[in-house]
Amino acid sequence: MNQLIRYCLLTFCIFSLSCGKKSNDEDTKEKAKTSPNIILFYVDDLGYGDIGSYGAKGVKTPSLDKMAQNGLRFTDAHSPAATCTPSRYSLLTGNYAFRNKASVLKGDASLLIDTGRSTLPKTLKKAGYTTGIVGKWHLGLGDGTIDWNRSIKPGPNEIGFDYSFLLPATGDRVPTVFLENGTVINLSKNDPIEVSYDQKVGNRPTGEEQPELRRQIADPQHNQTIVNGLSRIGYMGGGTSAEWIDEDFPYVFNNKAISFLENNTKNPFFLFYSFHDIHVPRAPHKNFKGVSPMGPRGDAIAQVDYVVGQIIKKVEDLGIAENTLIIFTSDNGPVLNDGYEDQAIELLGEHKPAGPLSGGKYSIYEGGTRVPTITYWPKTIAPGESDALMNQVDLLASVAAMSKQPLDDDVIDSENHWKAWIGQTKKGRESMLEEAYTFALRVGPYKYIQPKNEKGFEWVKGKGIDAGLQSKPQLYLLKEDIGETLNIASENPEKVAEFEKQLQSILNKK
Length: 510
Known about the structure:
25% of the residues lie in helices and 15% in strands. By secondary structure, it is an alpha/beta fold. About 4% of the residues have low confidence.
């Protein structure tokens, strides 16, 4: 009898342990679905047709193609605006950029995002996430005159990021140094940094004074202080020990991103990997030079593909792939000639950076904001394609809904489309604003563009891009005319009036 009792007790214990283990496994899987790690790859100036799965001709992107093949490829997903600072502002705040008069900032501008407002990283922090940003910032720093030789606040750490490793502005602007958690790294006290966007400081050569020292010919705007053989916007003195080397960006940023991943595998994390590529000046690492027949721009796209592949591999090696959502997209459409002569136009060949779309960076046409967008989450997102109307401004409300966080009243424009992002529905937005020196409204199959005189914007045409600005209303039926070539506004005055009224309601919303 005693043996029978012992046997029954042992069997019960084993059964209980196995049930407990199963329950824990189920809890872990459930938590992964409700609080997945999130990695957001945000590329700079990458056009709709610039990667293989969207029709690229002049460059191979095997890592991104594999991601698209095994994830969800969106055909009508948009950046909030056709330039970088406005798009980044909208992505992080859930509000269209015009609400804060956001425009492309100088390298020494003050922080654009108020530290008291809601942001994407703040929302995720409330849900228990650790948050980090690696790469380009270009949203301003500090609250006045910046002393680059001291800790700089406020910045990304004050608007919700636990960790930050940045290009303070962008690659074509000084200061050409890395900033980690608000402090310039590798800076010598004996060689302090001085920065000015008004007059020359320090004794470094400039492109204006010594053009023979430049590796790439630059336009007058990009022809000031020379660092690493490339002239920049603005003047910089000192800080020699802290200078970056442009070619090292992919490896420097990847090392920081990988360290962040390794340090945050036990709790959910959000990593905003903000690329400098394929923005000018394009200076790919020697490992990627010549891999594309399109010159530095094509090589930079291949470099982006490598970076994405390495990060995905690291996620797999860490054993967290099945509870990690990866989003790949761009801050605006493509541009070839944007201040430096690097043969981007001459070596283009049959490649079409914007694919079938008109316009590009700076343009109100679809090429300005419709960008390649892929979401990837093994065993959660089914491979496929979605034509849902999507906008990056909605990421804040979407992750808030996923993580069961309430939205504050200062989030005006962001909508919850979490199920569309992860492929559980193909229903996206009903309507959407587009920004690029004027406003456009997408409603169903229609696109309405508000009249705007192109006077003062001739410089966009000088970059080989149609800004889409006309003094008369424009209306396009995108389903039949994706290239926006046939303006049907004059035949549809009632539609024009309806859409203008709807646009005004968005512009006046508070």
